[in-house]
Design a protein that fits this description.
Chain lengths: ~500, ~300
């Protein structure tokens, strides 16, 4: 608003929530024009010389040219991993392996700002999340698993444990470095060597991690990082000399991988999609529940497999709660991911943006009401505003399919039994949330909900000590905690003497 | 605790008092404290902080001279810079009210007086209402009283409520701030209940602390009260003000409070009619920060006045 007072240079500008830009500097970064494949401790060109671009999704500007690994390159990587397994890693004591993991963790901490900025640039997530969540957790996973490396016998009493050998790991684009750490740390702690494929839209932090791996003098071939898209992944999955596979990503791809693995009786861990119910009872701490719901669905633009994407709110407070939620969404700050005050960043890719848009349109066609805040979106880049769909029925596509974007669907319930029935009535089962001040109700619900992770009076809390994984189409196997070691080990019963 | 209700004296309608989850509340407060306030926002925040300060002296050793000095500082915080706004009010004991009224006359700076057996509140209701009436008679624009924690925590919420109603009557048209003394309440649930009780009984402002005990205001406690205000206003349409006091000494702390208020209650609360910070040493730190913004370097404590 232009007033005469505002023309006066001494006039006091009002303090409001439109905070002045506070952009994190990118001067620490040294992004190369082109990246090779990290095989046997060195960066190599791909045998096919094929490459692809990785973009900053908030501006659509290309950041770098990335080599695409062919099946010949995958073969080279698996051979390097096999060689490293037999030559160094298999015979190394757990305590020595731990030393490498501790070193990686410390390097991640020391270079955390650089990693965080790169993660935000390549993936579109807000800097406050990569800085305060992704990086501390990534380092924590290495620290935690370093501690296990020399204590595996204690983790599995009466069992003899040994590593599988060469592990193939494929990770998604939503938490690129964190997922790499989440997968690499337990595999290495348990004595396996790894061929890791990052997602094609977000390869840069994994490639920076390759630099760290060189800096800590990890024996060559213990970690190999091969970049590429579906074909590269498929070559890794199909490779005959891989002893175990671990995949995090879509249920669709997970099923394909399972089909391939089952033919060869290959050990497999899948961490797939979700459509988590977030249940709010009338006696909940409502102000915190609203923040919990916001965090549950809008954290990382909703690109979270365990996102609380289905809000189930008790009838008696539903109108009030939804009204308050809509008012709260008005305050979310969508924009430049590098701005330290940004709450919601860019959608990771054009393809994902189209998918979100298509599903929301389907929801509207099926009769859902859409609420979007009045925020403006940048013109360039991939953006979707925080969105709430009300009037959603259990049979609507938006209530059943994973949207993987900042879109919350709202349903109501009357009794705990109805909440439970609706919560469980999904092919997925990765996570769930419960908000009530009544402890017995938390236990009643948690005992009956078919989900691998259940949060009570909080949401999206992660810790390397806590096992994470799904029921049903959300996958199998656990990552994190003592349970997360088991998939990376063969266990044999010891004869008692 | 389970949910209960409280009835506002003005609307006569019951309002649910919702519980508070400690872990999530504190997580939200620390997340708000990561807001990065730079350049123009920083200047705006510093100026707004000054405009919202209740410049306070509540010492047994207070003298008319000291109060006069405080009032001068309130009217003209930075003698070298006329662009620096004046503070909202000075806050003194009843005995000092007339001196403060005299010293601030015509300036727009208000005079607030603590009253009602501050800081304990433990004298008879008659004595407390008489104390309030006396401070009003002496010319106070605003009265800061304490919640009767003794009654409230013992479960006699009715008595605590009725005493606020009586205090409000003694104030007449003068604004009433009710100090909850959050450091004595023991939980966020109790802070929420006390906030709702004070607002329902007619408080124009709710205030965190007396500043007389070590446990004073904190960001999560302020957030807890701001959420109560948001809820009360949502149900009654009565915009109750909020005041943080005790332990706020740095400009950075002050803008954390502003962020909490802005993102909880909205920009309608970002003015001295609805938000105050009770403080004595804060003002000088804000002035030093403003000087730094203007000059690019930090000056020392001798470049602001010690009053």
């Amino acid at each position: 608003m232009e007033t005469s007072a505002s023309k006066d240079s001494s006039a006091i500008e009002d303090f409001g929530i439109d905070y002045a830009p506070a952009i994190e500097s990118t001067s620490l970064l040294n992004i190369k024009e082109k990246y090779g494949l990290f095989i046997d401790g060195d960066f190599l060109d791909s045998s096919s010389s094929n490459s692809f671009k990785t973009l900053d999704p908030s501006t659509e500007k290309p950041l770098s040219e990335i080599s695409e690994a062919s099946s010949a390159d995958i073969d080279k990587a698996v051979k390097a991993a096999r060689n490293a397994y037999e030559k160094y890693w298999m015979t190394m004591s757990g305590a020595v392996r731990a030393r490498y993991l501790f070193r990686i963790a410390r390097h991640l901490q020391e270079r955390s700002r650089e990693f965080a900025v790169l993660e935000t640039l390549d993936g579109g997530k807000p800097i406050k999340e990569s800085r305060d969540v992704d990086l501390p957790l990534a380092a924590a996973h290495f620290f935690y698993h370093a501690g296990w490396a020399d204590k595996l016998d204690y983790a599995f009493p009466q069992r003899k444990v040994e590593p599988h050998g060469v592990v193939g790991q494929i990770i998604p684009w939503n938490f690129p470095l964190l997922m790499a750490s989440w997968k690499l740390a337990p595999a290495l702690a348990c004595g396996n060597t790894v061929v890791l494929k990052p997602a094609e839209t977000t390869p840069l932090t994994a490639l920076l991690l390759a630099e760290v791996i060189k800096d800590v003098d990890l024996p060559p071939g213990v970690i190999n990082i091969v970049t590429g898209a579906g074909e590269t992944g498929s070559a890794l999955v199909e490779h005959p000399d891989v002893d175990k596979l671990a995949f995090t990503g879509s249920t669709e791809v997970g099923k394909l991988i399972q089909r391939s693995a089952v033919k060869r009786n290959l050990p497999l861990t899948l961490e797939l999609g979700g459509k988590a119910p977030h249940v709010i009872f009338e006696d909940a701490a409502l102000d915190q529940a609203i923040e919990g719901v916001i965090n549950g669905i809008f954290f990382n633009q909703g690109h979270v497999c365990c996102a609380g994407s289905r809000l189930l709110v008790q009838e008696s407070i539903a109108d009030h709660f939804i009204d308050r939620l809509q008012k709260r969404i008005e305050l979310l700050r969508v924009g430049n991911p590098l701005d330290k005050n940004t709450d919601i960043g860019a959608i990771n890719s054009k393809a994902q943006l189209e998918r979100i848009d298509q599903l929301v349109k389907a929801g509207v066609e099926e009769g859902a009401e859409v609420y979007k805040p009045s925020c403006s979106l940048p013109e360039k880049g991939y953006w979707y505003p925080p969105t709430v769909l009300t009037g959603v029925q259990q049979s609507h596509r938006v209530a059943r399919e994973e949207i993987f974007g900042p879109v919350l669907v709202v349903q109501t319930f009357r009794t705990p039994e109805e909440a439970l029935e609706k919560a469980n009535n999904t092919p997925y089962g990765l996570s769930a949330g419960i908000w009530t001040e009544k402890g017995s109700l938390i236990h009643w619900m948690a005992a009956r909900m078919r989900a691998g992770v259940i949060w009570a009076n909080t949401f999206n809390k992660f810790d390397p000590t806590s096992p994470f994984g799904g029921y049903k189409e959300s996958g199998f196997g656990r990552e994190g905690g003592m349970h997360g070691l088991a998939p990376y080990l063969k266990t044999k019963r010891k004869r008692s003497q | 605790m389970s949910t209960s209700t409280i009835t506002s004296v003005e609307t006569g309608l019951p309002i649910r008092v919702t519980p508070v989850d400690e872990v999530s509340l504190e997580a939200r407060a620390s997340s708000l404290a990561t807001r990065s306030i730079k350049t123009t926002s920083k200047r705006a925040a510093l100026n707004l902080s000054i405009r919202c300060i209740d410049l306070t002296t509540l010492e047994g050793a207070d003298t008319p001279e000291k109060v006069a000095s405080l009032c001068q500082k309130a009217k003209r915080p930075d003698p070298a810079n006329v662009d620096v706004p004046q503070v909202a009010a000075v806050c003194v004991y009843p005995e000092m009210v007339e001196h403060a009224v005299e010293a601030t006359k015509g300036s727009g700076v208000k005079v607030a007086s603590v009253a009602g057996a501050f800081p304990s509140g433990l004298s008879t209701l008659d004595a407390r209402t008489a104390d309030i009436a006396d401070a009003v008679r002496r010319g106070a624009d605003e009265i800061d009283i304490v919640l009767n924690r003794s009654a409230f925590l013992a479960g006699d919420e009715k008595r605590a409520f009725e005493e606020i109603v009586a205090s409000k009557e003694a104030c007449g048209e003068v604004h009433l701030k009710v100090i909850l003394e959050v450091g004595e309440l023991g939980s966020y649930d109790k802070i929420r209940q006390a906030s709702m009780l004070a607002m329902a009984a007619g408080a124009d402002f709710i205030k965190t602390s007396t500043g007389k005990i070590s446990q004073a205001s904190s960001l999560p406690r302020m957030l807890c009260m701001a959420e109560a205000v948001r809820d009360f206003t949502y149900h009654t349409n009565i915009p109750v003000g909020i005041k943080a006091a005790g332990g706020i000494r740095t400009a950075k702390q002050a803008w954390h409070y502003l962020v909490v208020i802005a993102e909880t209650l909205g920009t309608d609360w970002l003015n001295p009619e609805r938000f105050r910070i009770g403080a004595s040493s804060l003002l000088n730190d804000v002035l030093l920060q403003l000087k730094h913004l203007d000059s690019g370097y930090y000056s020392g404590p001798d470049y602001v006045t010690v009053d």
